[in-house]
């Protein structure tokens, strides 16, 4: 009898221990991945097609951190990250890209590729699906509003093509009377109202996105992805970030871009770029015989840059005869937009188009960016604009 009793008790104890072990396993937290494994499966590409993993969201031209080739439509990248990072998968030699936010997890990417033979092998992708990266999911969810903005942009331009083209031609030809006439027309005023509403919406949605993520690395990440370049006005956005956000990888990148290291006292290396007609100019030839040169980095889409041009014209008009020269370098990626802005602004000094190398050499991360250089090629001032530039030139060119 006692033997049966002890056997029953022993069985209960075993069952209890077994049950506790199961519960402990259920409650045991999942072990966090310490590395990433990105597996890709892309249809439509030939075996041997190169694939590079290139850092994104840096405002700089980055080199690949890894490279592989595709076989039977498959490829793999592995590595380790301190925090999630945006990367671009480059297929072929600059033929096509797929962005992926990578974190330490098992990530899968599938897509269908189409190689356009008539466009020098450009690769288009469709049905891209990324799974296994919570960061990538969150990124897509938080930036879904961009699709609505794209539709809004197309919508407010409908029906205004003719009046916009007429106004542009009048501005290029310098016909102020015609510009005023078009500008006062109901069609143009209606277009301006719609355009202002659109950009107000862009500004608000972008600010809301960054603000609601200001406590973590997402805040500076969204800041660097939503703005192609920074202007001094955006320093206040950075200041709202938490200490944690500022210390993050992207927080440090934003800080570096907004507060670049001073180049005062360093020498400018000679460089060559092309003007709007495709003619190459050597900077030494442009500045030969000049006492002081202002190198001005700008872009057609940069509002603060365009607002500064009248001040540059004033300085040029007053001091060009005394040995002052301006060299404007556009960082525009859209050459047509740059050409259009040149025609509108009618600047009387040399204007060249950047090749990324020159702006990188000057560590240009925010525009407008200006560097005042003496006759020996040494930078003696930076970010001089408006009254500050006027005062400096007055001091230097007293005679």
Describe the structure.
The chain is of the alpha+beta class. The protein folds into 3 domains: 36-132, Sandwich (Immunoglobulin-like), CATH 2.60.40; 145-258, no CATH class; 272-396, Glutaredoxin (3-Layer(aba) Sandwich). It is built from 15 helices and 15 strands. The strands form 4 sheets. It has a 5-stranded mixed beta sheet. A 4-stranded mixed beta sheet has the order 4-1-7-8, covered by helices on one side. α13 (335-345) links the parallel β12 (324-330) and β13 (350-353). α4 packs antiparallel against α5 (176-183). The longest helix is centred in the N-terminal third of the chain and has 26 residues, at 2-27. The relative contact order is 0.08. Mean pLDDT is 86; it is low at 1-22.
């Amino acid at each position: 009898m006692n033997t049966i009793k002890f056997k029953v008790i022993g069985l209960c104890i075993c069952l209890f221990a077994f049950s506790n072990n199961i519960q402990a396993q259920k409650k045991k937290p999942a072990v966090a991945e310490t590395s990433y494994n990105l597996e890709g499966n892309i249809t439509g590409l030939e075996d041997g097609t190169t694939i590079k993993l290139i850092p994104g969201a840096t405002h700089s031209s980055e080199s690949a951190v890894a490279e592989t080739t595709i076989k039977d439509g498959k490829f793999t990248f592995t590595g380790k990250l301190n925090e999630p990072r945006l990367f671009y998968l480059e297929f072929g030699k600059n033929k096509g890209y797929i962005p992926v936010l990578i974190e330490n997890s098992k990530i899968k990417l599938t897509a269908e590729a189409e190689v356009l033979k008539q466009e020098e092998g450009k690769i288009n992708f469709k049905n891209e699906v990324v799974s296994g990266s919570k960061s990538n999911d969150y990124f897509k969810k938080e930036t879904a509003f961009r699709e609505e903005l794209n539709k809004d942009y197309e919508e407010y331009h409908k029906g205004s093509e003719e009046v916009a083209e007429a106004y542009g031609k009048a501005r290029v030809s310098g016909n102020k009377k015609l510009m005023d006439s078009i500008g006062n027309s109901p069609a143009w005023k209606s277009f301006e109202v719609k355009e202002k509403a659109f950009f107000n919406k862009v500004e608000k949605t972008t600010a809301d996105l960054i603000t609601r993520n200001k406590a973590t690395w997402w805040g500076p990440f969204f800041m660097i992805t939503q703005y192609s370049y920074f202007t001094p006005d955006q320093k206040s956005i950075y200041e709202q970030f938490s200490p944690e956000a500022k210390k993050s990888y992207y927080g440090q990148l934003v800080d570096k871009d907004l507060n670049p290291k001073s180049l005062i006292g360093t020498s400018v290396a000679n460089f060559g770029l092309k003007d709007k007609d495709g003619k190459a100019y050597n900077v030494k030839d442009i500045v030969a015989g000049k006492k002081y040169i202002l190198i001005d980095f700008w872009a057609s889409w940069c509002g603060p840059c365009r607002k500064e041009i009248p001040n540059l014209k004033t300085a040029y008009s007053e001091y060009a005869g005394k040995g002052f020269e301006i060299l404007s370098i556009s960082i525009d990626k859209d050459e047509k937009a740059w050409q259009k802005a040149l025609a509108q602004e009618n600047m009387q000094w040399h204007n060249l188009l950047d090749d990324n190398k020159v702006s990188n050499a000057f560590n240009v991360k925010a525009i407008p960016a200006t560097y005042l250089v003496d006759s020996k090629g040494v930078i003696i001032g930076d970010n001089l604009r408006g009254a500050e530039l006027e005062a400096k030139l007055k001091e230097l060119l007293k005679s």
